[in-house]
Amino acid sequence: MQGRIANHPCRTTTPWNQGKLIGPKPPLKTKEIWSIRVRLQVAHRIRDLALFNLALDSKLRACDLIALRVDDVALHGRVRSRATIMQRKTGRSVQFEITEQTREAVARWLEKKDLHKGEPLFPSRINRARPMTTRQYARLLASWLRAIGLDPLAYGTHSLRRTKASMIYRRTGNLRAVQLLLGHTKIESTVRYLGIDVDDALLIAEQVEI
Predict the structure, then answer these.
(1) Which DSSP string corresponds to 72-120?
(2) Under 8 Å between Cβ of 54 and 80
(3) The pTM is what?
(4) Is 37 or 209 the better-scoring residue by pLDDT?
(5) Which distant-in-sequence residues (6+ apart) come within 8 Å of 28 by Cβ?
(6) Torsion-angle region of 79 (φ positive above 0: left; ψ -120 to 50: alpha; else: beta)
C-alpha cells in the first residue's frame, strides 16, 4: 500500500505540504480573482494569466493542469471552447469549458512561446520538452496571492480547482453537475470537497416549491 501511494502520479517525492499549515483550502472570491487578473495583465505576464485563467476554468488538479499539452486545448493554433483529458488520479476522463477570456489568454501565450502540438502547454524554463512542476505552479500561485495581500499559507492550488466549482454550486445547487465537472467518482466526495453542510442543503430546499 505504501509503495502505491509513494508512486502515485499526482505525488512528488517530498510531500507538498511538508512544514505547511494543512486543512481545507478556501476558494477565491470574485474580487480576488479580478485583482489577480488585473495585476497579471498590467505586468504583461502572459503565461501566468493563461495559467491562472485555465486553472479556474478547467477545475483540474495541479498535476493534471501542468501536464496539459498544446493539443489538449488547441487545434491548428485555435484554442477550443471545450476540452477533455484523462485524470491521472482516477484514470477517468473529465471535460471542461474554456471561456472566451481564457481562450484569448492561452492563444496569446501559444503565440508568444511559439508552442506546437505535442509540446507542454506550460513548459519548464529549464527544459522546454518538460512541463513546469507542481512546485513551480504552487510558487507562482503564492506570488499572485501575496501581490493582492492574501496569505499564501491559507490557500493552495486546490483553491483554484475549488473556486469555480463552488460558484457553480452556490448559484445552481446542482451537485451532480459539479461532480461531473470535478471528475469525482462519488457524489459524497463532491459534498466533502465543497464543504456542503445541512444549512446549505436546507437553503436549496427552501428555494424549491412543489
Answers:
(1) HHEETTEEPSEEEEE-TTT--EEEEE--HHHHHHHHHHHHHHT--TTSB
(2) no
(3) 0.81
(4) 37
(5) 36, 155, 159, 160, 163
(6) beta
Q: Give the residue among 192, 183, 188 at the shortest CA–CA distance from 61.
A: 183
Model confidence at 7: pLDDT above 50: no
List pLDDT tens digits, range 21-79.
445 688 999 999 999 999 999 999 999 999 999 999 999 999 999 999 999 999 988 99
Cell 479556474 -> residue: 56
Helix axes 175-182, 187-194, angle to 10 degrees: 90
Question: What CA–CA distance (Å, rounded) separates 101 from 151?
Answer: 27
| CB-based contact 64:74 (threshold 8 Å) | no
d(CA 142, CA 145): 5
Helices (H), the chain: 2-6, 30-42, 46-58, 62-66, 70-73, 100-113, 134-147, 157-172, 175-182, 187-194, 198-206
Indicate if the pLDDT at residue 199 is higher than 60. no
Model confidence pLDDT, tens digit, residues 77-88: 899 999 999 989
Q: CA 189 → CA 176, 186, 192, 199, 208, distances in Å?
A: 11, 5, 5, 18, 24
**How large is the average pLDDT for residues 201-210?**
62
Asked if 31 and 52 touch (Cβ cutoff 8 Å), the reply is: no
